[in-house]
Amino acid sequence: MPRPLSHIRVLDLSRILTGPWASQNLADLGAEVIKVERPGAGDDTRGWGPPWFKDLDGKDTSDSSYFLSCNRGKKSITLDISRPEGQRIVRALAAKCDVLIENYKVGTLARYHLSYKELREINPHLIYCSITGFGQSGPYAPRPGYDFVFQGMSGLMSITGERDELPGGGPMKVGIGIADILTGMYASLAITAAIVHCERGGSGQYIDMALLDSMVAFNANQISGYFVSGNIPKRTGNAHPNIVPYQVFACKDGHIILAVGNDSQFASLCKVIGRPELAADERFQLMSGRIVNRDALIPLIAEIMRKRGIHEWIEVLEGANVPCGPINNMEQVFEDPQVQHRELKVEIPTSAGLPCPTVASPMRFSETPVEYTVPPPTLGQHTQEILQDLLGMDRPTVQALAAKGII
């Protein structure tokens, strides 16, 4: 059975993380993705190591694990798009593609005569997705954008981290490039929606994705509370502003997460920890009371949780249907029976004979499952194939382009 986007071809002019994350999602859905990279250097993240992917002899290759994480399922072509010959090839490819993704600074591709306005004259059905830090308009549009900056500007760091008055308090970023990943996800959704529009008789269109926009939207539930109440949300560490108890507690041998989301779960928790009377206490009986009286309740629970080990607590809490869990490191994640059952680690065969490890897509289809057969490409691996088979160039022409450093 063909995968959902197996009829779609994507021209990917993006690099680093946001655009490649979006195009990898499309590749997972079956799209043919042609990744355009700089001759000799490639996507910047190829060099963002260590750690590096190893060859059969255990030696470092030139590709970082960072690059591998967001470029499976793609074909790589090297092309200098700053030169007229390279620009002509991009235009020829755009004429044969359904989607173009780019994350250059505002105005860069227009200088290369590769703007949406120019390319849609070649291909009216082209879906052209631009990803920038601040979007195509506004006072900040010309600025470069980085994930860390948007975690701060969007308000996320104002609600992430321990309270200022406690040890270690202060704003804290999330441990991954969440603005990049999130914008890549939104871009994937926008592109697939535009594909549906086009296939229903519409035309191609331009998609303006901004990391700042995505991160502000990401904070919607906290922002909604601010809009309604006028109260500026604050950092609560590992606690939840609207659910109690919903935080990390120290145990005898580490830490555990309690995520008690309703009153019946709280009653079960109180029974398990040997304090059933807390569930009948007027201060704590309802969630609204537990929120108001958080400072009285949490120390009582914390004292009890220190008396047992993590796994002992998890066993009894799960037996009582109280949501809880450990705080795993990355090794422990893939030792977890549920993670193993879901096969979240996938190894893709490579031509070198050494499998490339990758994290499985969370998209699970009953009829058109994601396939893991195409590893992240080596730099320029498919240049000759694409130029000759897709664009119909003969071998001497390709060799001439290589001699000039165009490819």
Task: Offer a quick outline of the entry.
By secondary structure, the protein is an alpha/beta fold. The chain is built from 18 helices and 13 strands.
Share in β-strands: 5-15%
Gyration radius from CA atoms, angstroms: 25 Å
The structure class reads alpha/beta
- The side-by-side strand order for the widest beta sheet comes to 5-2-1-6-7-8
Q: Largest sheet at a glance?
A: 6 strands, parallel
Number of helices: 18
Instruction: List low-pLDDT spans.
Output: none
Residues in helix, %: 25-40%
Cα(first) to Cα(last) distance is: 35 Å
Mean pLDDT: 96
Shape assignment: elongated
Total count of strands: 13
Structure write-up:
By secondary structure, the protein is an alpha/beta fold. Helices cover 38% and strands 15% of the residues. The protein has helices spanning 18-28, 65-68, 84-94, 108-111, 116-122, 147-153, 178-199, 211-218, 220-229, 263-272, 277-280, 287-292, 294-305, 310-319, 330-333, 337-341, 383-390, 395-404; strands spanning 9-12, 32-37, 52-54, 60-64, 74-78, 99-102, 127-132, 206-210, 246-251, 254-259, 324-326, 345-348, 356-359. The strands form 4 sheets. Strands 5-2-1-6-7-8 form a 6-stranded parallel sheet, with helices on both faces. Strand 1, helix 1 (18-28) and strand 2 (32-37) form a beta-alpha-beta unit. Helix 1 (18-28) crosses helix 7 and helix 7 packs across helix 8.
